[in-house]
Amino acid sequence: MLAICNVLQNVSKNDSNRKLPFHNHKLQAIYFYFINFAYFQKVEAFEERMFAHPLHKDKELGSLYSLYEKKAQIAKEVKEAKRELKKARTVIQMEELKCRKRVIRRLGYATAADVIEIKGRVACEIARYVDHNAKHLFLSFTLFRSFQV
Questions:
Q1: CB neighbour class for 137 (10 Å; exposed up to 12, middle 13-18, buried from 19)
Q2: Domain hosting residue 76, numbered range
């Protein structure tokens, strides 16, 4: 409590250079009194809650705290591992995307510059009405194959 009082006093000393909208020094003193009083009330309420907590009097607080630190470290490692997994998945998805684009180009649905051809647009329109398990590709492929005599 004494350390908190010292900090608040230092803060109020440093803020004293700032001009307040009060021209009357009595009003300034009352203003600072109520501000400091509100801070002290918050500090006292926090201290009461802290001292009333069952862990405050627990003899195993040090071991529990070390276990909590280990848990926090493990959680940090898990978060880092998830981040690395996400990066690896994006690399795999990019490779899969390249393979899919190559197949679509070879089937004639897109040009070498990845511009969608008429055949690809027809496949997209068919895909709106058919399940997305490559039936639309097969239907558009057979349609365009039958028109190419």
A1: buried
A2: 65-107
